[in-house]
Specification:
Length: 127
Amino acid sequence: MFSSPAVSNGYVYVGSSAGKVYCLNEANGKKLWGFDTGHEVISSPAVSGEYVYVGSVGDSVYCLNAATGEKVWEFVTGAAVFSSPSVSGGYVYVGCDNGKVYCLRAAVGDTGSWPMFRYNPERTGAN
């Protein structure tokens, strides 16, 4: 595994070199679901609300349902996605191997608020 895990609401989300994104139970490590991207996942997942965002070496950014692993949407970038997505204000930001940074609309209903850093909204961009 190359990606760092994202932990939210008792679940651990992580990408793998086998081309999958996994959701594990934080308490016991049991696999709850796996989503197959078909390509290595070096990007670390970002969790926001009910959604998980992750990129793959196969030139795509995915929005997955955090509870089920079902694909909500996919955006083809045309270049490998090595960077980890960031989510804020209803948008997903991700850099690609082609030197571009993409700003994508998050899933419907996802406000994309970053967790508050040390309880200080001035340092997070969250309201």
